[in-house]
Amino acid sequence: MRHAVRIGRIVLSVLLFGATLELLARFDDHMTYGAPMTGRYDNEIMYTRDALGRRGKPHARFRKWTLNEVGFRGPALQSNRTSIVCFGASETFGLYESEGHEYPRELERELNARVGANRYQVVNAAYPGQSAATATMRLPEIAGLVHPRLAVIYATPADYIWLPYLEYSRGGVVEPEDPGFELRVWERVRTLLKSLLPAPVQTRLREREIAAEAAEFPVMQKLPEENIRRYRDDVALLAAAARQHGVEPVIVTHANALGTNPEKVDRALLVSWRKFYPMLAEGGFVDMELRMNEALRQLATEQHITVIDAARIIPPDQRYFADFVHFTDAGAALMASTVASGLEPLLRQAPTDSSSLGTNTPSGRTSSLTQSPHQELVAR
User: 43-175+198-378, what's its fold?
Assistant: First the structure.
């Protein structure tokens, strides 16, 4: 009996200790971010669903991510500025950058600094997981709301690795799974453990997880041409929809931390990338980026669309990438400078009077940007 009582006390102490840590984690979220003490608290609380799928909730907030009055990340919209809208996924929405330093915000500051006035407004219409296809469905609404002069299209290739999921996500309302009760302290514990584990151990654990998940998929050594074509066609449809609504599209090739030389790829980085896409073999990722970026360049040439070749300008350097595709503060700043240099010729042609927004856009101009004022500073 005495032994059973001792075990019961130990179990009770552990439960009380865990409950205390969870309560402190929730209190920390509440004091720091205004999070509710009970209920769900993850990035999905920033979104709602309608007939077209996911959209941002006005004035929603999750940790450092804050949406404005119409559900876009960033400050309130200004009616007296020339608008530029950015389409993309989490690379554009912003993930690892300091608050206010995601590349659309940096782009706005860069453009205004170059003209010495608050002339431009850059609207971040991206959200994590947004494909070119879902952006096309949203474009008429956004064009009517923002009246942008230009649409910067930075489409992520990752959405096109697994086409069955692409079809599922573009089919309308996709409700996220309800996680039920979540331990908020667990993420803090996981982050701590990750910081303590040596990098080789982390890579080995990821490899074991990939092997288990890959058993559920027919693993591809490289992406089929159909995937590349779908990516190109969806970007083409988004660009065409922009022009139909009086907005000039600008395509930006996809920069990444892997570069263009498979022999020099950091394998640990590649494994961490593949963890999210176990259906593609490690060697297929660099090939995917190369082929999809080339498809974008060809599309831009054929359709007379300005292309900004960020994939060739931004080096695969840890200074610029926090993981495989998401920017650091320095990377977002370089991306903004690169895009600003590509937009300048178009903006010089476009009127900046807000009364004429959306009524006189440049068309048929092709400018393949492969140099930037800062390229010498970031040469490989």
Answer: Rossmann fold (3.40.50)
